[in-house]
Amino acid sequence: MLSFDPEKVILPAGHYIDGQHCDTQGEQLSVNRPSDGKPYATLSEAQAGDVDRAVTLAHQAVKASGWASASPRERGKVLRRWADLIEQDATLPQLEALGSTRPISDVVNHEIPFTAEAIRFYAECADKYSGDLFPTRDSSLGMLVPEPYGVIAAITPWNFPLSMASWKCGPALAAGNAVVLKPSELTPFSTARMAELAVQAGLPSGVLNIVQGSGAVTGSALVAHPLVRKVSFTGSTLTGARIMSDAAYHGMKPVTLELGGKSPQLVFDDAGDIDTVAQRILRGFTANGGQACVAGTRLIVQRAIAEPLIARLVALCQTFRPGVTWDETSRYAPLIDARQGNKVASVIAAAKAQGAQVLVGGERFADTADGWFWQPTLLSAPGADNPAVEQEIFGPVLTVQIFDEEEEGLQLAAHAIYGLCAGVHTLSLPRALRAMRAIEAGTVWINRYGRSGDFIIPTGGFLGSGIGKDLGRQAFQACQRQKSVLIDF
Ligand code: NAD
């Protein structure tokens, strides 16, 4: 029985610093449930002084506790215990489902195992990557020695609170750093509980601290803090640009930036079974109510199969039903809040004003109290300059464009700002490989859409979709800096 009573979930105090949940004196931010819009908690926003305390303690703890200098295998053991506790914890799924857009069954069956496995992957990385030896004169020795940065600031969005935290904390902690993490102010509590479990697993107190608050106050103080040596961020492209500039200004700190997307789904007339392709496209733009950076939101389909594919998609979209995230039968996610709902509505209105036609959906589901559940929406929007084609909407909205020749399809797949992911659907291997080469995106999925559970495959965007990679050994190595050493003997 996974369903639960949202009024009975016990919330931790927002911040988690030096092994303690704690409150601060900052401004009180209201936190609302996405499923019905109801306020369920207030959060005291961490001010610059609170951030200073969290970062300074992390800086001291990572050295004093021996975490940075511990044998990598010891760090791996702690991370593996942490992953076990995350999987076994009874309160974590409810905290995640209550405050985020993820239905409880999805949290239990996907988000929690995926979070735990990401941490296990980095536990395995801890002792797998070494430095280098260089050919030098006989009487000298040249080496490249990897070392942790010290304190890494992590800043995460609201769409996948737990797994985003694991992608940041797993590699950083495995490499011997301390982390101060600021989750989204819209989804604060599950991450605070996750940090408490890390300390229960044996992570020294203070090595992972959570500070809560808005980006403008808490986030910017964290990026600017002089003891923060690196910033790892996931969120929108606009915020990423701001963080990159702040990180440069306050100490030329390296950044990993996982940003927005507007990913194409390029379907050729030899893509195979229409129903299978339709199911793939559908999942690609409706998962988490379309609130996924990797959402495949631009269908670009070859004319010969456009009509049957669109007809199948329209029929599938009509089967969706809203349901609160604490009900185990719910499958479809609400939008995070009214602000996001109004954004989806306004882009659709602007798209229609510029000639887009609604093929299905286009409206909020009625009778869902103050929850914002948006009907899966297909928009026929031929112009590449249509707002629905240009902008990341972050809702379940798929634009449809039709092409005749391969070259035309590839041109439509390109985007002026984003280059996060792309789906290519064709049974012709040469065509798939030509498209893979031509498309400017950090990830190309061929005859699938979405990640596998293979954490070894990194993820990250080109162009305005980001810099650097999360996941894979690349994310672990990005949490180490490389020291060049030359010894004469
Ligand atoms: P957002 O950029 O508004 O906020 C992300 C985080 O940054 C939040 O914690 C926020 O408080 C913080 N923040 C905001 N301003 C800041 C500042 N000036 N300094 C420091 N921190 C600041 O994004 P969001 O609305 O929470 O999430 C949705 C966005 O995230 C979408 O654009 C989505 O594509 C992107 N995203 C990308 C990936 C990826 O892997 N590429 C994954 C998930 C989400």
Structure description:
The structure is a single chain. The chain has 489 residues and is an alpha/beta fold. It has 15 helices and 22 strands. It has helices at 48-64, 72-88, 91-99, 104-125, 161-174, 189-200, 215-224, 237-249, 274-286, 303-317, 338-353, 387-390, 406-413, 429-438, 472-477; strands at 15-17, 20-22, 28-32, 39-44, 132-134, 140-148, 151-155, 178-182, 208-210, 228-234, 255-258, 263-267, 296-302, 357-360, 377-380, 397-403, 418-419, 421-425, 443-446, 462-463, 466-467, 480-488. The protein has a seven-stranded mixed β-sheet, sandwiched between helices. Strand 8, helix 6 (189-200) and strand 9 (208-210) form a beta-alpha-beta unit. Helix 1 packs across helix 7, helix 3 packs antiparallel against helix 6 and helix 4 runs parallel beside helix 5. The longest helix is centred in the N-terminal third of the chain and has 22 residues, at 104-125. The mean pLDDT is 97. The structure holds nicotinamide-adenine-dinucleotide. Residues 155-159, 182, 184-185, 214-216, 219-220, 223, 234-236, 239, 242-243, 258-261, 293, 392, 394, 420, 461, 466 line the site of nicotinamide-adenine-dinucleotide.
How is this fold's topology laid out?
Layout: E1 15-17, E2 20-22, E3 28-32, E4 39-44, H1 48-64, H2 72-88, H3 91-99, H4 104-125, E5 132-134, E6 140-148, E7 151-155, H5 161-174, E8 178-182, H6 189-200, E9 208-210, H7 215-224, E10 228-234, H8 237-249, E11 255-258, E12 263-267, H9 274-286, E13 296-302, H10 303-317, H11 338-353, E14 357-360, E15 377-380, H12 387-390, E16 397-403, H13 406-413, E17 418-419, E18 421-425, H14 429-438, E19 443-446, E20 462-463, E21 466-467, H15 472-477, E22 480-488
This protein binds nicotinamide-adenine-dinucleotide.
Nicotinamide-adenine-dinucleotide binds next to helix 7 and helix 8.
Keywords: Oxidoreductase
InterPro entries: Ald_DH/histidinol_DH (IPR016161), Ald_DH_C (IPR016163), Ald_DH_CS_GLU (IPR029510), Ald_DH_N (IPR016162), Aldehyde_DH_dom (IPR015590)
Domain Aldehyde dehydrogenase: 24-485
